[in-house]
Amino acid sequence: MVVLDRELAVAREAAALGSTIVAEIYEKDFAVDWKGQDDPVTTADRAANQAIVALLRERFPEDSVCAEESGVEDNRRAVARGGRVWFVDPVDGTKEFIAKNGEFCVMVGLAIDGVAMVGAVVAPAWKRALWGAVGEGAFESRDGAAPSRLVVAEPSDKPRMVASRSRPDPRVEHVARALGIDGARPCGSVGLKVALVAAREADLYVLPSGGAKLWDSLAPHAIAVAAGATVSDARGEPIAYAGVELALEHGIVVAHSALHRRAIDALRSLP
User: Fold this and answer.
1) For position 86, which CATH number holds?
2) Which terminus, N or C, of the chain has the lesser number of Cβ atoms within 10 Å?
3) Alpha-carbon span 97 to 94, nearest angstrom
4) Residue finishing a domain among 99, 115, 150
5) CA gap 156, 201 in Å, rounded
6) DSSP characters for 56-94?
7) pLDDT tens digit string along 172-228?
8) Is the separation of the CB atoms in 85 and 63 below 8 Å?
9) Is the pLDDT score of 258 beyond 90?
10) First to last CA, the chain
11) 71 and 51 fall within a common domain
């Protein structure tokens, strides 16, 4: 088994650095620009992106880096290169950051040969940090307290679901009905929704398709797997963090293995 202690330590350091930058800007007035329709970006996104990427390139100069606020072509080349690729989302949940509802986080993770292996997620407004490496376990610290180990367990007869706050999807509602779930907890950031499953505050997260990119899922994907969850796309297939596409084209499903199978079956039953 590959030992990833140094990589995990650097991922945590980089996410903490980004969180400090983002938290300082969050408390002030800041400008909002638009990269495209329904795609905002702020000073916090750009400043944290720059600082995190610089740190990763200093510590691991031979690795590639794919970061949301870096150039699209540079990101595509980084992912297509394969091998060791760091994925950075400097503010996952920019809309929530702008709305100042606290549902945003900073995420840094490492894929090796297209597989999510290391992740660190820091939610400054929630005062929570989660981190993990596949095969080495996952952990969480709240408000700077001593870390606790994260272990995903099989849910009770009434699973709890977390879903997108801003993008409701009838396919998610179909899965909820099929599994006997009465409603879902709304949350903004993809990373935080996956983190809630890893922390056993939700049992299932389903994103059927579209909207998200690989940097939205890599870090929390690694943490969830390290905590014992099953993670796949909405077809039940592995998510590949390599190739030429940056989009999380087929979505993501995160849950304990037994519930994960039921969710995938429900998605497959859709006409």
Assistant:
1) 3.30.540.10
2) C
3) 5
4) 150
5) 12
6) HHHH-TTSEEEETTS-HHHHHHHHHH-SEEEEEEEEE-H
7) 999 999 999 988 999 999 999 999 999 999 999 999 987 799 999 999 999 999 999
8) yes
9) yes
10) 42
11) yes
Across 28-42, 95-109, 163-177, which has the greatest mean pLDDT? Answer: 95-109
The confidence band for 60, taking pLDDT boundaries of 50, 70 and 90, is very high
Parallel, antiparallel, or unpaired for β 32-36 and 252-255?
Answer: unpaired
Q: Got the DSSP string for 114-183? A: TEEEEEEEEETTTTEEEEEETTTEEEEEETTPPPEEE------SS--EEEESS---HHHHHHHHHTT---
Q: Determine the residue type at 69.
A: E
Residue 263's nearest CA partner among 153, 161, 195, 156 is 161
143 shares a domain with 170 = no
Calculate what percentage of the chain has a pLDDT beyond 70.
Answer: 99
Give exposure, 128-138, as e/b (b: 16+ Cβ within 10 Å): bbbbbbbebeb
Identify whether residues 183 and 109 lie together within a single domain: no
Q: Which conformational region is residue 243 in: left (phi greater than 0), alpha (psi within -120 to 50 degrees), or beta?
A: left
Cα(215)–Cα(87) distance, rounded to whole angstroms?
A: 5
Amino acid at 28: K
In whole angstroms, what is the distance from residue 36 CA to residue 251 CA?
21
Task: Give phi and psi for 81, each to the nearest 5.
Answer: -65, -30
Residue type (1 letter), 94: T
CB 236 within 8 A of CB 186: no
Q: Is residue 156 part of a domain?
A: no
Structure tokens at 13: 């350091």
Residue 85 near residue 53 (C-beta atoms within 8 A): no
Cα separation, 229 vs 155, whole angstroms: 12
- Domain match, 136 and 175 both: no
Q: How many CA atoms lie within 13 A of 238 on its CB side?
A: 9
In which domain, by residue range, is 215 found? Answer: 161-268
Distance of CA 108 to the CA centre of its chain: 9
